[in-house]
Amino acid sequence: MPSPYADRLDGLQIEARRVTAGEVDTAYWVYGDDDAPQTLLMVHGFRGEHHGLEPIAAHLDGLRDGSLRVVAPDLPGFGASAPFRGREHSVPSYAKWLVAFSGALGLGPGVVVLGHSFGSIVSAAALAGAPGRPALPAARLILVNPIAAPALKGPRGVFSRLAVLYYWAGAALPEVLGEPALKSRFVTRVISEAMAKTRSKPLRSWIHDQHDVYFSRFADRQVVLEAFKASVSTDVSTYASGIAQPTLLVAADRDDVTALPAQYALQQKFARAELDVIHGVGHLIHYEKPREAALAIGDFLARGEASFTPASGADLGAGAADRPLDILLDCRYVRTGQHDGISRFTAGLVTALAPLAAARGHRLRLLVSDRRQLSKLPRLPFVVGTDPTSPFEPLVATRINRLAPDIVWSPMQTMGTFGRGYRLVLTLHDLIYYTNRTPPPEFNPVIRMLWRAYHLAWWPQRLLLNRADAVVTVSSTTAAAIAEHRLTARPVSVVANAADPAPSGLVARTAPATRDLVYMGSFMPYKNVATLASAMQSLAADGYRLHLMSRVSPAQRASLSALAPAGSLVFHDGASDDEYQAVLLGATAVVSASLNEGFGIPLVEGMVLGTPAVVSDIPIFREIGGEAAMYFEPSSPASVAAAVRRVSAPDEWAARSAASLAQAARFSWDASAGVLLDLLERTARG
Question: Which of 65, 84, 204, 600 is most buried, taking the most CB atoms under 10 A from its CB?
Answer without folding.
Answer: 600
